[in-house]
Amino acid sequence: MRRTLTLLAGEGSRSPAAGPVMGRIRDAVVSLFRIVVGLLFACHGAATLFGVLGGPRGGTIPAVGEWPSWWAGVIELGAGGLVALGLATRAAALVSSGTMAYAYVTVHLPKGVLPLTNGGEPAALFSWSFLVLALLGSGAWSLDRLLARARRPHQT
User: Fold this and answer.
1) What pLDDT, in 10s, does the model give residues 104-134?
2) Model confidence over 137-154: pLDDT tens digits?
3) Neighbours of 80 (CB within 10 A)
């Protein structure tokens, strides 16, 4: 079990068998995936809250504090932005994954089980994508990695 989690977390990609090139490619792909998913999620939140980028799906901007639409928009914009930047990535991705799982269960599942028939494909894809990012982390191109380097004592 521990070996499986280690491989999922990407630590196994640094093994000599994988090679340094594959490790760098993996880090770049994870970073690009994180940036794209985070930006798309943040754009969805901005559309919900401010009516930009095509506006909210329901057609009207939710009132401040309106449950669940306004809160979902805040989470989408805030956590999506954090994920895109690679800052507090694992926590933001976990919150985002849970938010989309909740949206799927409460909004889409009552309309049918399959995402193709209930309109829940985006919620399902976002939920699983963010769960993957919560497990893999932010990748090489992130503020998380930059801050971790800055905290390390300088070797002289």
Assistant:
1) 999 999 999 999 999 999 999 999 999 999 9
2) 999 999 999 999 888 887
3) 25
Between CA 14 and CA 7 the distance in angstroms is 10
Tokens of 18: 């994988």
Residues 27 and 155: their CA atoms lie apart, in Å, by 24
SS in 3 state form for 90-156? HHHHHHHHHHHHHHHHHHHHHHCCCHHHHCCHHHHHHHHHHHHHHHHCCCCCCHHHHHHHHHCCCCC
Picking from 14, 27, 9, the residue whose alpha carbon sits closest to that of residue 141 is 27
Which pTM value belongs to this model? 0.81
Distance CA 127, CA 98 (A): 7
CA 93 to chain centre: 4
H/E segment holding residue 31? helix 19-50
